[in-house]
Amino acid sequence: MPATDPSDVKAIEDLIAAEDAAWGQRDAAAFSKAVLADCVFTNIFGQVFVGHDAFEAQHARIFATIYRGTRLRQTVTHLRFLRPDIAVVDTEAAVSGLARLPPGVTSPDGALHTRLMQVFVKDRGAWGIAAYHNVDLKPPPVPPPA
User: Fold this and answer.
1) What is the pLDDT of residues 99-133, one digit of tens each?
2) Which domains does the chain have, with CATH numbers?
């Protein structure tokens, strides 16, 4: 594994914090700022959007509807540099303040809990998001009786 530059770790962590802040402001442009032109985004429903413009448009829609007034909080659970210019970042994400959960999603506390994987690529000194894949967390399976 390549050596990790602490300034790159901080830059990525700052981008994730900026996503959380932009979500709270319902600012799709700011939320999408680091998304690359050819980014592939898969949401919790398995819908796939390709490109920065599609990512931003989808977030503008959800900020105005189902996720209006919500907050996003991400916690980095894994950050791995594949090369000095490519990092895979897994976060546990929680969206709180929902009027109702999305169809098919259950939650003990009313928040939407997901695992989000983002692939960051560094080009000309700046980090951007090349892939964004989000899945909602399911309750653990109940073990069969012994």
Assistant:
1) 999 888 888 899 999 999 999 999 999 999 999 99
2) 6-136 (3.10.450.50)
H/E segment holding residue 21 = helix 6-24
> In whole angstroms, what is the distance from residue 146 CA to residue 136 CA?
29
Helix (H, G, I), strand (E, B) or coil at 57: helix
Between the CA of residue 72 and those of 50, 67, 124, what are the distances in Å?
Answer: 22, 10, 29
Cβ-based neighbours of 97, under 8 Å, separated by 6 or more = 69, 70, 71
Quick one: DSSP state of residue 27?
-
- For residue 71, which of 1, 120, 20, 136 has the smallest C-alpha distance? 20
User: In the 8-state DSSP scheme, what is residue 82?
Assistant: E
What CA dihedral angle connects 79, 53, 126 and 93, to 10 degrees? -20
Please give the model's pTM, rounded to 2 decimal places.
Answer: 0.90
Which alpha helices (H) appear in 25-86, and where do they start and end? 28-31, 52-64
132: nearest Cα among 84, 93, 83: 93
